[in-house]
């Protein structure tokens, strides 16, 4: 009987669920949905409304501002920063975490724009009242339209940037030999220690 002394490769570590994956997936999904919503406003909704009369513009925007406050949109809009923050925390010791943190900052800027610019403009438009009886609908529209459209374009770019950063985080997360930030090899990694 002969003995085979040929070195054999070590068995691969089991590849089960890794921490942070579900949170990262939720962040990508919710941020993508929100970026898409703001993109559609920038590319289609606002230019389309811009072709209408002042009273029609005000009336439709008042309706949009009412109906967008629904559980489906709010789940994506509020779920994006929450899931991104949680994913950044869970992935803080691996390279993907840096990308997630950058996405959180970009989305945070968009969220701040929404709270600081869009919500006050929407509230002022609602306070203008019934478009059929507004004395100067052109002035109401002018006060709203320019700033809202311009800052929505910025908000759409920021959300799209956050989405792109999260997609990059997915690539880093899925890399087979990902190294933690502190230089210690990840558990189950094939990298040399």
From TrEMBL:
Spans through the membrane: 23-47, 67-87, 99-121
Keywords from the UniProt entry: Membrane, Transmembrane, Transmembrane helix
Biased composition (Pro residues): 8-20
InterPro entries membership: Anthrone_oxy (IPR013901)
Keyword Zinc-finger among record annotations: no
Pfam families according to UniProt: Anthrone_oxy
Keyword Transmembrane helix applies: yes
Region annotated Disordered, chain positions: 1-21
Name of the protein in question: Membrane protein
Species the sequence originates in: Streptomyces longispororuber
């Amino acid at each position: 009987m002969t003995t085979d002394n040929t070195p054999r490769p070590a068995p691969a570590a089991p590849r089960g669920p890794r921490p942070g994956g579900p949170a990262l997936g939720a962040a990508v999904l919710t941020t993508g949905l929100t970026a898409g919503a703001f993109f559609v406003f920038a590319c289609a909704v606002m230019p389309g409304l811009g072709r209408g009369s002042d009273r029609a513009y005000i009336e439709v925007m008042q309706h949009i501002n009412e109906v967008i406050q629904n559980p489906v949109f709010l789940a994506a809009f509020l779920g994006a920063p929450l899931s991104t923050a949680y994913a950044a925390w869970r992935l803080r010791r691996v390279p993907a975490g840096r990308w997630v943190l950058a996405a959180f900052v970009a989305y945070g800027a968009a969220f701040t724009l929404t709270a600081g610019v869009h919500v006050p403009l929407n509230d002022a438009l609602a306070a203008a009242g019934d478009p059929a009886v507004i004395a100067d609908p052109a002035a109401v529209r002018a006060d709203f339209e320019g700033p809202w459209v311009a800052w929505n374009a910025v908000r759409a770019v920021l959300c799209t940037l956050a989405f792109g950063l999260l997609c990059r985080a997915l690539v880093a997360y899925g890399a087979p030999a990902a190294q933690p930030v502190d230089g210690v090899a990840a558990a189950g990694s094939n990298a040399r220690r």
